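Module 6 notes. Inverse folding takes a fixed backbone as the condition and produces residue identities as the prediction. Think of it as a translation problem where the source language is geometry and the target language is the twenty amino acids. Below is one complete input and output pair. Work through it position by position during the lab.
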């Protein structure tokens, strides 16, 4: 509860001239507002049916419930929204949520510097611009719902390894994924070998892939999750949920539904994917 206590005392300092009673009322109102905000349902995230694979957990970085939340580390000056740079944590969250039982998702807390919490403007307390009361993530349902934001906070520095993968540079580096894999007892292997990634996928592993600029997925850089492969196509969960791709190679992408796309094997080069992060659990 230390997150809530720190916010409570900060609010007392701001409202000291109004007396303790008024401060308590203000804090209660803020907490009610925050809880009501996160009681709303996600609009883009949920379960998707992947052809040949079955149901998989899908998260969208641009889900209206959290897309506008600031995603920064405490030392940056900006307030970039999660929808614009949260593909790494979101793809990693899909990899973990589809590999680890929901009851075990809270294991990441053991490797965090402070409890995971949210407010209506930021996924960490350092970038809360209105000093909202914070929504403390405690339940199994919280961890399953908000796993991309938890991993975003982790990537922004809320980890015991002092790894900050969310920097002033655009996007998020992949370094935080190693700490997350370790926290869950998962073996993580990085490779540039497409054949190796497909073998892992066929063997039941989950694979996060990085697409570079100029390809079918992005004009900058982007992480996606490889969901399934068959003889003709590679099925991909794209953290950026969209109905239209405005890229140089967009015609190569088959949109099955927003967030779920397919690439024919002969069109794979158009995706400009050059790195694969294989998550393997014994």
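Target side of the pair, the amino acids:
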């Amino acid at each position: 509860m230390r997150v809530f206590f720190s916010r409570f005392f900060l609010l007392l300092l701001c409202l000291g001239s109004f007396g303790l009673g008024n401060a308590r009322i203000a804090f209660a109102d803020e907490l009610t507002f925050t809880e009501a905000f996160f009681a709303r349902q996600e609009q883009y995230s949920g379960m998707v049916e992947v052809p040949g694979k079955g149901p998989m957990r899908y998260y969208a970085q641009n889900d209206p419930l959290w897309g506008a939340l600031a995603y920064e580390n405490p030392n940056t000056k900006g307030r970039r929204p999660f929808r614009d740079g949260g593909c790494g944590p979101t793809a990693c969250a899909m990899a973990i949520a589809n590999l680890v039982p929901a009851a075990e998702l809270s294991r990441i807390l053991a490797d965090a510097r402070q409890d995971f919490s949210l407010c209506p403007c930021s996924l960490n307390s350092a970038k809360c611009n209105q000093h909202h009361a914070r929504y403390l993530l405690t339940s199994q349902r919280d961890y399953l719902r908000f796993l991309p934001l938890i991993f975003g906070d982790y990537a922004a520095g809320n980890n015991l390894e002092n790894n900050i993968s969310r920097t002033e540079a655009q996007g998020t580096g992949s370094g935080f994924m190693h700490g997350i894999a370790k926290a869950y007892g998962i073996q993580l292997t990085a490779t540039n070998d497409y054949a190796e990634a497909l073998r892992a996928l066929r063997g039941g592993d989950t694979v996060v892939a990085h697409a570079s600029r100029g390809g079918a997925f992005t004009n900058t850089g982007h992480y996606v999750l490889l969901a399934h492969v068959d003889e003709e196509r590679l099925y991909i969960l794209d953290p950026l949920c969209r109905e239209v791709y405005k890229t140089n190679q967009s015609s190569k992408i088959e949109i099955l539904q927003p967030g779920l796309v397919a690439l024919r094997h002969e069109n794979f080069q158009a995706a400009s994917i050059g790195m694969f992060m294989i998550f393997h659990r014994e």
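Reference fact for the lab report: The CA atoms of residues 199 and 219 lie 28 Å apart.
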